[in-house]
Specification:
It is built from four helices and no strands. It is mainly α. Helix 3 packs across helix 4.
């Protein structure tokens, strides 16, 4: 459990679940129930603001941990230290020529869609 890649992936998956769960809860449960409710006080606005804050923070953690995962995985694939990943054309090669890179680009695109709801 000393491998940083394990920890980065765990944080990435946890933040992905938190973002997804928060957005789905907000869209499918909170908003419909507030529309059905006769109560129009500060509670809906407070809940909405707090859920958006949690989703935004989780999305930030998701993007940062995703970038860290890319750098660590690239270093492992080409068998160099992480500091040397930037000096070679390794990132482009991993992103364009591996399944991991293609998946990473798709995940980044989906995260980008969540930034602008």
């Amino acid at each position: 459990m000393d491998d940083p890649l394990i920890w980065v992936r765990a944080v990435h998956f946890a933040s992905t679940l938190l973002v997804s769960g928060t957005v789905f809860f907000l869209v499918f449960i909170a908003e419909p129930s507030f529309r059905e409710s006769s109560y129009r006080g500060a509670v809906p606005a407070t809940v909405h603001r707090q859920l958006r804050w949690v989703a935004g923070l989780s999305l930030l953690i998701l993007v940062v941990s995703g970038a860290a995962w890319l750098f660590l995985q690239t270093a492992r694939m080409i068998d160099v230290p992480v500091s040397e990943v930037f000096s070679e054309a390794a990132l482009g090669m991993v992103l364009m020529r591996t399944g991991f890179g293609h998946d990473w680009i798709v995940r980044l695109g989906l995260a980008g869609l969540l930034i602008f709801p």
